[in-house]
């Protein structure tokens, strides 16, 4: 299906090559940042407190999930402009999430599930207290992180295909990417709610 199928949507086929280069540059930069942010910590300027960011991140993820549900609803109704707008909101919220996520993890030590005394070490007593639920938490967390890392270039590629008017290719990829993106967006707040009592 060509861009003529939806004349109400502007397309930019002449920018496809530039957009592809940008897609891979952004994906590589994000991958590098996520890879190093847990190994290096930057000092927080005096008077700054980034402790509010996990709640912001959970809210941004929840907003992304809502936008994706609307996006799916709109495309089922063939309201393609609203569908694109909802996807734009989801993408924008995801970018804000990524910025907040990187800032938080570059400046703050990891919070460990079950670490009730907030010393960064899970003692045997603490581990025993959460032994039943911790495996569930880890499965949700690891699936969330893994999919988030893998999905970024595919989310951008799906968006690119729509922007250049390759709607058949866009649709084929979106059928896989959208439910996985929705899973990541939903499990973000779930991880936060499971972890919230262990934040200092």
By CATH, the topology is Four Helix Bundle (Hemerythrin (Met), subunit A)
Which class of secondary structure composition applies to the elements?
mainly alpha
Domains, number: 1
- Record field, number of beta strands: 0
Largest sheet: none
What is the CATH class?
Mainly Alpha
Approximately what portion of the residues adopt beta-strand conformation? under 5%
Task: Count up the helices.
Answer: 6
Mean pLDDT comes to 91
Order of helices and strands: HHHHHH
The assigned CATH architecture is Up-down Bundle
Distance from N terminus to C terminus (CA atoms, Å) equals: 53 Å
Roughly what percent helix? Answer: 55-70%
CA radius of gyration: 19 Å
Shape: elongated
The low-confidence parts are none
Give a quick precis of the structure.
The protein is mostly helical. The chain is 70% helix and 0% strand.
What are the defining features of this structure?
single chain; 6 helices; 200 residues; Four Helix Bundle (Hemerythrin (Met), subunit A); mainly alpha
Explain the overall architecture.
The protein has 200 residues and is mainly α. It has a single domain, classed as Four Helix Bundle (Hemerythrin (Met), subunit A) (Up-down Bundle). 70% of the residues lie in helices and 0% in strands. The chain is built from six helices and no strands. Helix 1 packs antiparallel against helix 5. The radius of gyration is 19 Å and the shape is elongated. The relative contact order is 0.17.
């Amino acid at each position: 299906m060509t861009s003529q199928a939806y004349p109400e949507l502007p397309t930019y086929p002449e920018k496809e090559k530039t957009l592809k280069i940008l897609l891979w540059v952004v994906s590589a930069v994000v991958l590098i940042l996520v890879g190093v942010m847990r190994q290096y910590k930057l000092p927080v300027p005096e008077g700054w407190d980034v402790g509010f960011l996990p709640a912001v991140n959970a809210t941004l993820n929840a907003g992304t999930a809502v936008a994706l549900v609307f996006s799916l609803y709109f495309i089922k109704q063939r309201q393609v402009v609203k569908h694109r707008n909802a996807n734009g909101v989801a993408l924008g919220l995801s970018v804000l999430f990524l910025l907040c996520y990187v800032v938080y993890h570059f400046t703050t030590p990891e919070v460990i599930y079950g670490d009730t005394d907030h010393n960064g070490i899970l003692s045997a007593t603490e581990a025993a207290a959460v032994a039943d639920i911790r495996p569930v938490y880890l499965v949700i967390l690891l699936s969330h992180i893994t999919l988030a890392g893998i999905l970024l270039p595919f989310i951008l590629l799906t968006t690119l295909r729509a922007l250049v008017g390759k709607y058949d290719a866009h649709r084929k990829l979106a059928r896989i990417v959208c439910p996985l993106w929705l899973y990541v967006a939903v499990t973000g707040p779930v991880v936060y709610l499971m972890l919230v009592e262990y934040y200092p």
